[in-house]
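Structure, all two chains, one model.
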Amino acid sequence: MRDYPGTRQTFIEMDTIPENGKGIPVDHNKIVAEKVSAFFGKVQAIRDIQINIPENSIVAIIGPSGCGKSTFLRSINRMHELIHGTRVTGKILLDGEDVYSLDPVLIRKKIGMVFQKPNPFPTMSIFDNVAAGLRMGGTHDRKNIAEVVERSLQQAALWSEVKDSLSKSGVGLSGGQQQRLCIARALAVNPEVLLMDEPASALDPIATAKIEELLFELKKRYTIVIVTHNMQQAARVSDYTAFFYMGELIEYDITKKIFTAPSIKQTEDYVTGRFG
Amino acid sequence: MESVLITRNTFKASKGRLQNPGDFLFKNLTRFFAALILVLVVLMAYEMMRTSALSWNKFGFNFFIRSVWDPVQDEYGALPFIYGTLVSSLLSLIIAVPLSLGIAVFLTEVAPRWLERPVSFFVEMLAGIPSIVYGVWGFFVMVPWLRSTVEPFISKYLGFIPLFRGAPYGVGMLAAGIILSIMILPIIASISRDVLKAVPRSQTEASLALGSTRWQATRIALAYSRSGIFGAVVLGLGRAIGETMAVTMVIGNRPTISASLFEPGYTMASVLANEFTEATSEMYISALVEIALTLFIITIIINSFARLLIWSVTSNERAQKA
């Protein structure tokens, strides 16, 4: 475990310091959102979101369509502001520093993202896809790049499948392989946090299972926030679950508790399938 | 549910024997109109081949590699015109492509919305100005300026390169290239803009999410749309090759091949425009028609190639949206 100075420790607001399901004690919140609101023009998509995301854990965000879960995710790495006429208020702290006071390019290097639909660069080979982030970051040392590409592909559990076809186009892969390629691409820039926006919703069950398996591995090194509308998936993979509804955070707790004994009725209704 | 069934049945009926006479007429009338276009193209090609047979039989393939053009002796060769068309078109591409791409990138990636519309409008408006207006402007404004300022300046500093040697006439290859570049700029810029706009958001976002700068994300978008942009450039080339009036007014109309861009030249389109009324002998007419046929074939090939490239890009976009 990494050792953090006491001043930087902010604990998740619960009775006791929870264990995140795999026996790793939470001693540091990687991301802290304070009163985060996001707007599309005059429409408010999320309202005063307050959430702590512990390091080396998987936090799932669930909720019905249009509840603002993706918007919140995209606010964390400042992708939300790319859409014309949008803005974000409040604070999002990464290791105690407000991401909105830093250079977005730097923030996005530290906070990687995987999208709903696999989006490899079609004009690039598998190798170049993974190397893209490094090269754009100014790394041109061939040996170094080759090492990082191999390591990232291994982390994304894709290496054994593509090691003989690295120079082939990334779009020739299957959907699940493409998504793992995108995960490898995100990992290559060595982020600290990985945001995943319904990463398995466009995949078949086998590919989904592979991605989920991968998440457990990745958790050891990264902090993961995953948006999903698949509640079984949230229950399977995450340590903590946040339930969003109509742009507000309704309940946030240990995943087990959210799915077995939620304290708020709306959450219970949603996870038991009574609405949404 | 009911309405769906009805439309299905009508659709089936239109394919089978139970046909509404109005629909039958409508279908075949529009089919006839569409076929008319094809017939027209084929007839044009046939007619040109027939008329140019005389010249083709006499000069054969040598027609394209001879540089003599002598109506008095009835000796014809198209090389200076082919050369003039190629050089002026390529020159215009060299000037117009970077400018157009700059405009397209500005409009899609940089410009705020309130600026994007008026600028796009003006760029597209350039395409609507009649060729002759460019010609008049070129002849009375640009050519004197080239003669008195630009060409002396270039030849003073770059005169050691054969391209920029010789007397500054004003009229010549350079003038034609510049006029053409202004004329093809709107088509390349607006199609490149459309092609860049067709790049899926997910591509730009993928790049930005990796911590790329705006410029790096733009390069990803340019790489994604490269075949469409290439199509736009080829379409611009097609326009430059066929452009007649403005070029005729500023190119100098002399069938010579010279390395210098300052020297006058001649293009296939201009020689047709200038000499058709003067063509008296049958061989003269036949030679001109052979040039016309050459131009016809070249532009058809270039345009279909360009359209294919652009179609492949925009149909991909449609497939992705669906």
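Chain B has a mean pLDDT of 88.
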